[in-house]
Amino acid sequence: MTRPAIKDALAGRHIEAVVIGASAGGVAALLRILPGLPAGYARPVVAVLHIPERRHSQLAEVFAHHMEMPVHEAGDKEALSDGTLYFAGSGYHLSIERDRTFSLSCEPPLHFARPAIDFLMESAADAYGERLAGILLTGANQDGAAGLAAIGAAGGLTIVQDPAEAQVPVMPQEAIRLRAPDLILPLWDIHRLLLKLEKN
After folding, report:
1. Is the pLDDT of residue 117 over 70?
2. Less CB within 10 Å around the terminal CB: N or C of the chain?
3. Among residues 118, 143, 182, 189, which one is catalytic?
4. Could you tell me if residue 39 is inside a domain?
């Protein structure tokens, strides 16, 4: 049932970057959608998960053991590179500038989170417009809903994890309530969609 929907959603699109947001249950969800992407994946993938501010993020180290592509924590003023998986570090909001570089900021927490998903998604929508894909996964608050809506308003592709499958459905439900996404998919089909971007 989802195969035609994915094909139709990708028709005529040229996606240059992928941004992903998740909170509670997000590590397990990402481990189901990201491993298997090829080393030469033709776009950057940027992920924000809610991390306690005083705890060093080990996400890059963990995922490096599961990915063929390079994985590291995004750095301030660093240019985005295709075929790389980036994670937001703890204690800073992560944004993407129009020149396709990262920016770290110490603005107050948003939805009790720093890094916040909305910061990444709204800035990425401004930088990439219709050439962006945004994915929102499991989580326990409304962070990411406004960001994903901004991606949709800019003409980008918006994907939400099926709330019925999510470990914590609040975040995907809020995104669906705020603005209907292009696709509502289980994790396996989100993985398939990411692979299909290579052929699109």
Report:
1. yes
2. N
3. 143
4. yes
CATH number at residue 189: 3.40.50.180
Share of the chain above pLDDT 70, in %: 98
On whether residue 135 sits in a domain, the answer given is: yes
Q: Contact at 8 Å (CB) between 191 and 5?
A: no
* 66 classed as catalytic: no
Active-site pick, 23, 90, 95, 123 = 23
**How is residue 21 written in tokens?**
């947001």
Mean pLDDT over residues 57-75, rounded? Answer: 95
Give yes or no: 143 in active site: yes
The closest alpha carbon to 108, from 124, 95, 92, 128, belongs to 92
- Whether 115 is in a domain gets the answer yes
The structure's pTM equals: 0.96
- Mean pLDDT, to the nearest integer, of 141-150? 97
- Quick check: is 57 catalytic? no
Q: What is the pLDDT of residue 170?
A: 97
Mean pLDDT on 52-66: 87
Say which of 50, 90, 93, 189 is annotated catalytic: 50
Number of structural domains in the chain: 1
Give domain status of residue 89, yes or no: yes
Enclosing domain of residue 182? 2-8+15-194
* Pairing mode of beta strands 93-96, 102-105: antiparallel
